[in-house]
Amino acid sequence: MGSFDISIWTTLAAAGIGLLIVILFYAFRRGEDAAFLSRLGVGVFLLKAALVPVYFMVLMTWGNGGFAYQDGIGYHDAASEMATELKFGLPHDSHGWKFHDPGYNYLGAVLFWLLGPNPMAPRMLNAAATALTLFYVFQIAMLVWDDRKTARLACYLAAFLPYSALVALDQRKDAVVQLMAMFLLYHAFRILRSLPGWGRDLGWLLGGLIVMYYLRSSFILPFAAAMAICFLLAHRSLIEGLGFSIAIAGIVLALLFTADPDSNISIGASVDRLGAKVESSANLATRGGLARFARIESIAGLYKLPLASLFVLIFPFPPRFWGRWEGMAFSWTNLPYVFLLPGLAAGVFACFRGGRLRERLPILVYPAIFVVILALTHFDLHRYRETFSPALFILMAGGLRAGVGVVTLITVYGGLLLIAAAVYLR
User: Fold this and answer.
1) Which of 3, 58, 285, 413 has a CB 3.0–4.6 Å from the CB of 295, allowing a cystine?
2) Residue pair 132/22 in contact by the 8 Å Cβ criterion
3) CB under 8 Å to 14, separation ≥6 — which residues?
4) What is the largest CA-CA distance in the chain?
């Protein structure tokens, strides 16, 4: 790992930049709930900004060099080298420019160029990203449930559930990816509903996809598939819905087949990457406690998909008393989310009531697509759940507000207890 420079002044400067971004973003919001979202966004940023140095010092004390995971170190080193090249006008030859998805490196390099290689700076940017995400959580929840109390509850879940809060505290791109994912889902929702200004939403959607290409290119194809399914199923006219789906599929396929063979989203790169991830998952099939029984090692193992999908939603569970302390901490902070899973089940059921299923399809299809993909590839990488977890919170909020039945409670908690017992007593 390369060196870093922690200065209280550059840390405060990074926090100030993050706070300014949040304030300016919400300053231009209008509507009945603008004040609520502004207060919540600023409050969430200040809370997470205060936790950033605390979490860093904990990681330093436990001998992890201030980084919870290896890829955080990789992002820091890459951004540091890139910042040096920018500062002194050197050729862009360092490995950070050649990352598979270099977008987060670009952001880190600019921050390090301005403030020096202070690992607090990208984490303050992450804290700001989580605060901005709440706006899109609220707007999507309103489109789904048309109830302000439910939308506010979804924001509280996204803001304060402990495992979700960890997203901002390490130097990884998950918080920024999550923001862009909700940005794209919001504009896709508006286009699907043909709301006023949908043409402008289409422009924002295309621009957002370009940004996401540099952050997490593997997001684009599943997202396009989810939207194509929604267009097909949500339109009352089968011909119109099919036309939209064919148009989307045509654009995506044209992009895939005309992309440079070395591009992240070329058809060859996509197939190779998927194959490598399935192979990697198969190689891990002998490890992971009870999870090893849910790993899909080949096409013959597709019957395990329901169980593997369940593990995507609850992993890491049950709480660990062994292994690295970061994993143990994550599994325990995951418990409040797991405790609220009956609300998620109730929210899914609620989508089928009231005659608005067509309008609510994206909030069901979008997370389902990603759950299936992770179940097929590498559901042990729990951080990828952050891509769609705000959608789960929106469903959860709707279910909690509608009320959770006794049968749902018994079924969900009973199943979780059986899983926990099987793991602990194996």
Assistant:
1) 285
2) yes
3) 111, 115, 118, 120, 121, 124, 125
4) 65
CA atoms within 13 A on the CB side of 52: 30
Rounded-to-integer distance, Cα 48 and Cα 6, Å: 18
Pick from 208, 28, 17: which is nearest to 125 by CA? Answer: 17
Q: Which amino acid is at 215?
A: L
What average pLDDT does the segment 68-75 reach? Answer: 85
- Between CA 350 and CA 359 the distance in angstroms is 13
Q: Which tens digits make up the pLDDT trace of 115-146?
A: 999 999 999 999 999 999 999 999 999 999 99
Look at residue 156 and tell me whether its pLDDT is greater than 60: yes
- Range with the largest mean pLDDT of 29-33, 114-118, 368-372: 114-118
pLDDT digits (tens, 9 = 90+) for 44-59: 999 999 999 999 998 8
Token pair for 66: 């201030």
**Minimal CA–CA distance to 341: which of 261, 291, 289, 408?**
408
Dihedral sign computed on CA atoms, order 286, 289, 293, 294? negative
Q: Compute the distance between CA of residue 239 and CA of residue 208 in angstroms, rounded to an integer.
A: 28
Q: Which amino acid is at 285?
A: A
Contacts of 294 (CB under 8 A, 6+ apart): 304, 307, 308, 310, 311, 375, 379
Convert 362-382 to b/e letters by CB count within 10 Å (16 or more is b).
bbbbbbbbbbebbbbbbbbeb
- Report how far apart the first and last C-alpha atoms of the chain are (Å, whole number): 38
Rounded to two decimals, what is the model's pTM? 0.89
